[in-house]
Amino acid sequence: MNYDQILQEIYQEIQPYAGQGEPAAYIPDLLKVNPDRYGICLHTLDGQDFAMGDCDERFAIQSISKVFALAMGFARLNDRLWQRIGVEPSGNAFNSIFQLELEHGIPRNPLINAGALVMTDILLSVLEYPEREYLAFVRSLCGCDSIQYDESMAASERDNGYLNAAIVNMLKYYGNIENDVERVLRFYFRQCSVKMNCRELSRAFLPFADHTRAFSFDGTELTTSQVKRINAIMQTCGFYDEAGEFSYLVGLPGKSGVGGGIAAICPRQYSVAVWSPRLNKKGNSVMGLKALELLTTKTAVSIF
Amino acid sequence: MNYDQILQEIYQEIQPYAGQGEPAAYIPDLLKVNPDRYGICLHTLDGQDFAMGDCDERFAIQSISKVFALAMGFARLNDRLWQRIGVEPSGNAFNSIFQLELEHGIPRNPLINAGALVMTDILLSVLEYPEREYLAFVRSLCGCDSIQYDESMAASERDNGYLNAAIVNMLKYYGNIENDVERVLRFYFRQCSVKMNCRELSRAFLPFADHTRAFSFDGTELTTSQVKRINAIMQTCGFYDEAGEFSYLVGLPGKSGVGGGIAAICPRQYSVAVWSPRLNKKGNSVMGLKALELLTTKTAVSIF
Amino acid sequence: MNYDQILQEIYQEIQPYAGQGEPAAYIPDLLKVNPDRYGICLHTLDGQDFAMGDCDERFAIQSISKVFALAMGFARLNDRLWQRIGVEPSGNAFNSIFQLELEHGIPRNPLINAGALVMTDILLSVLEYPEREYLAFVRSLCGCDSIQYDESMAASERDNGYLNAAIVNMLKYYGNIENDVERVLRFYFRQCSVKMNCRELSRAFLPFADHTRAFSFDGTELTTSQVKRINAIMQTCGFYDEAGEFSYLVGLPGKSGVGGGIAAICPRQYSVAVWSPRLNKKGNSVMGLKALELLTTKTAVSIF
Amino acid sequence: MNYDQILQEIYQEIQPYAGQGEPAAYIPDLLKVNPDRYGICLHTLDGQDFAMGDCDERFAIQSISKVFALAMGFARLNDRLWQRIGVEPSGNAFNSIFQLELEHGIPRNPLINAGALVMTDILLSVLEYPEREYLAFVRSLCGCDSIQYDESMAASERDNGYLNAAIVNMLKYYGNIENDVERVLRFYFRQCSVKMNCRELSRAFLPFADHTRAFSFDGTELTTSQVKRINAIMQTCGFYDEAGEFSYLVGLPGKSGVGGGIAAICPRQYSVAVWSPRLNKKGNSVMGLKALELLTTKTAVSIF
């Protein structure tokens, strides 16, 4: 497969989408980023990598961080995890708390905010130094020690994060949060604030595409079966209420963030990260979605 | 892959689940079936087939029929289809009509009842002899001319199908049904009443797993891209509000029916049909689900 | 109280509201009526009556008919009625069926469509000649033998009544309808089609305001306590999701219909009927609501 | 009316209900109270008062405090109040936040928690010394300077008030809270913690029943029309999702609290307060409800 040429073609063909959509406005720090950035990077299992565009500029990974938290928690609790979080798609906007009320505090899956808040609570309970270990895991995945929390963004998100504060209080009301709500919120927003560039993010997702090597990073160990299950959850739940659309158009497990990033994997083939800050109405990167759709069309390889 | 041995092992390992669950009670005709039947059949792309258990007894395919309707409608309307039906998982029980109210009569996807009723309405509008052509398509897929509607079951389901009558009236209220509601209901229940055995059903799904040969059956033609998209929809929406669980445990696109059947495919590898009438609380076959979970575990091949 | 002068003043003061709102468009026959009609009639307990405007033109009472059905059913089942229907306000638009799903087929109260359909089912079960007896009861209440169903309107409403068909099928699904759904719908729409003028409607409501004389009309007998309870239900549930607003602004038990009519009572004082076809967005008569607000302001008498 | 004898008879007739229900368990301090207390006190407009049972023991008024906050806010904002809060019954349990999500942060009415939290926010914005002025208003209404907040109960409720914390964060998210969420919660729970006995509470509600004297207490002035409107809101919204039932059985405007108190008024006749800590499943006092039902039955006077 000539990935260099494919990334080149994709770049040409997504130009008509440049300028469409708006960056997320509810996190002030995100508005400081140039909204017209576009970068894509792809790592294959045989050790090659291909990049195009703004691949060296870091951005806040936001909800993509939920995949890392899921991996850490799943490795430690295994299937006991599912007593506190489901694996079903939410079928509603990413911030809906109606479902929490109907289902008495059990979030639908680990990739919506409610689920990630419970996962954060779990990490606070099982890890000795949660913030430090989370960062160490991410650094280990992408092989880069300079990955950091953006403390200023995390603090600003906490100050304005009323919806997540509502959700975590609801969860606590239903008995599904063990730690202090403020402690949970602080850690959650720090995870969201982690900054990575497309090269680092693609590299960090490569182990999720690789069933040949053991998944073992800084104390987080997953079996092949567990890695596949994380893939399955990304496939059905990774794009808020656009998960079906992504599955329909792209056909890869993945996760998006409101910072404009999307990471996805083609099992046994490659991992890919794309970034472009302008979002559609459902909160997913306009150019990012289109780029991945073109990628699976041009390679004629998806999971289906 | 020694599928014969795998089916044998599966048969042994699912015995502890025998007798668990209950057959669907709301369709009287389904209760006449021996609830302890179990059959499985698998067709590979290279032309082999493997069977085990009650593979020659026909059962009502019920909701599995929605996949055939989707194929027929998608072939004819292509992407215009999505103006009337979505592709997102429903995130609710299979019979919820709350979502219809919230979303003004646009069903979430073609594999829930509301979506299949709209699809039925579409087929009534675009086909000249809808009932005859539907049956011809299914016969052509499995290469068996004796496939029939069970008219008595269809009539009985219509007589007691108050929930589907409620749904189709809601859809009509929102302007998403063109034909007479009674006409739509009659055709819908006839599709559900189609009887096939595991061999025939597995055979009928093989073309959805095969991207090398053209999909062309009795006038219904689908491109490779369209076939993949039907796979994607089965993957995210095929198991009511257990779609995530199925994806998590099995990792194959598929569709279940309350008659106890499940059909699934492993793209580029095989199709499989399993049947056992006892259902779990979400309406999916207990032994069927377990058999497919064991199948992907033992073959170590899934889409992830 | 000089009611003549008050009705006169009201007439002057509501002129600025003339032309506001639109008549109900979903029932074709309602659009044949001159939308700028306005009539009001008031009957006092001491036997006087006062009228103003278009008081002799009959209109379809539509949902006001639900009060008559409630009286007939309550008289016959007494408190057993509440096993099948609640007495709580619905807190949602008049056509919501989400609540039915959440509450498993028990309508919130007898004055929303779902409740009235159950009430209609009850009347079909307990009355020998339901249509004839219903009409006889209404005629007896207002002392006028020429009150009739508008059969053409009833038939036309049935033909287009998809939402009510959805509701009655839902109710049947939950086991809360004993009779054939089509039979229930036909009788329900006949009740809605009853035509009365303001004089007749006001006269028909007078017995609900009168606790001194026995309530006994053509076989329907209610105790004082039952009459008060019907008042209480009208007070909390009579105006769809504008019941609180009506209670806040007017402070009288009453019931509105999409034909533009409103009937209300001031217990121990008077009954009143007002009619004007232009409706606000919640389906209540614009001039009718304003007239009643002015009435309780000018008389300084309400239930509060 | 011989109220002494009526209260005596009520006392006899409610004995079969003694021991039914449970006191609210989610507020630890409420469990310290003897659950078998029962007291009732009634004040007539002509200056008499009648009492029976445990009328001198103070209890936490809890949600009854919402009526006082409504009076203070309504007096100051008049109809501008309704831009931020509705007047419709909620039709759901007292703690539902689904409605907030559907209606974008506008609470249904001022007597549910969400509405009272917005009202608390309003008082924080318009009053100079909110806590002090609130207490002064309540003291002025009942003519007793020893009324106090129970600071310990307020603090304990805040510590465990996750649901209210969720609600106020939701409201803030939708822009309907101006002040700091913690500040709002603290003041809200202090209002709930106010302790009064039946004599004081009945006395405090008397001005809401009296349309002959000006409503003017410590700077809070309401017109007769405003007082009637508060009555109307109590009538339709005062008992969570049992408002219709209370209206049906009792027929008086009123408000209950989870401390077991209920205050109600019969306009132009009397005010009444009853207290008994055991609650039914909807959170209203079992013996209190029954006592008020007997009161309006025996006096044969209600608003209907």
TrEMBL record, chains A, B, C, D:
UniProt KW keywords: Acetylation, Hydrolase
InterPro entries with a match to the protein in the record: Beta-lactam/transpept-like, Glutaminase
Annotated signal sequence range: none
Pfam families xrefs: Glutaminase
GO biological process: glutamate biosynthetic process; L-glutamine catabolic process
EC numbers for this chain: 3.5.1.2
GO molecular function: glutaminase activity
Catalysed reactions listed for this entry: L-glutamine + H2O = L-glutamate + NH4(+)
Recorded superkingdom: Bacteria
Binding site for substrate: S63, N113, E157, N164, Y188, Y240, V258
Family of this protein: Belongs to the glutaminase family.
Subunit structure, interactors included: Homotetramer.
HAMAP family attached to this UniProt entry: Glutaminase
Protein name: Glutaminase
Protein source organism: Caecibacteroides pullorum
Gene this protein is translated from: glsA
